[in-house]
Amino acid sequence: MDTVGPIRTVAPVVVGVDGVRNHLAAVELAAGEAERRHVPLLLVHVLAGESAQITTEAEGQKLLCAAADHVRAGTPGVPVGTELAWGNPGQVLVEWSRQARLIVVGHRDVIPVHARWGSTAAFLARRSACPVLVRRGGLPGRGPVVVVVQAAAGEQAAIGCAFHEAGRLNSRLVAVHVHTGAPGATPIDHVAERQEGRRFLAEALAGWAWTYPDVPVERVILDQADITYTMQRAARRSRLLVTGIGSDGGSTDLVYDPFGLVLSRQAACPVLLVPSVRRPAVVTVPAEALERQ
Hints:
Elements: E1 2-3, E2 13-16, H1 23-37, E3 41-47, H2 57-74, E4 80-86, H3 89-97, E5 102-106, H4 119-127, E6 132-135, E7 145-148, H5 156-169, E8 173-179, H6 187-211, E9 217-223, H7 227-237, E10 240-245, H8 250-256, H9 260-264, E11 271-275
Parallel strand pairs: 2-3, 2-5, 3-4, 5-6, 7-8, 7-10, 8-9, 10-11
Antiparallel strand pairs: 1-4, 6-11
Helix pairs in contact: 1-2, 3-4, 5-6
């Protein structure tokens, strides 16, 4: 592990730098988030062995130095540091998630193992201790913030983040709930399930709607059969997709599973994955992790 800079007590934005095509787009997104939050940015590259695109420490340091120079040129007010580590990229970033304010990654790895996302993003989607921002395609200048709500008790942090982002972006919020329906359900059962879904969604959003009264809210109840089309459309037309992180991956799967391989090659909005437990805003980062400009 190799880090540069003085000791600092702060929760940085951490971005995975993997050297794949357009990797600087994730770095730029992370730098913008660090600037907005007034916190440092830490660039992390993990040497993952012979299967990786970059296999030597010298190459890894060169990649990190180039990325750091790119950040300094574009966002000169953001303190930036670098870390070079060996191991599994997902595991390393999960460790950093316990100390970071936000983790930023691209949605595809050099060697993806998931048809929709790369292994690192998919790994973080179930294990990160802090919010994870997955960069996909371009950054839409308009459109709503969309939040997927499946379990109100475990997704209050995600709902709160969605309201906050919608308010910051002056956008409306679209809250989506998917009801699966029991096998053999009758049309009457189907109507009752949708009514229950509307009640569930209203209760899940109630407190946050009171906190953010200026954010317009649209509630959408979906059948399981409609999820693929709806989430693909949302990915193309929204500013941001938000969902909770959970060990079962339920809501997260609703966001990235319907994308499919074709959509992963198209421009789509970023995805913000939020753990159910809020972490403190300031923690102690290991020594020599960050460099002040």
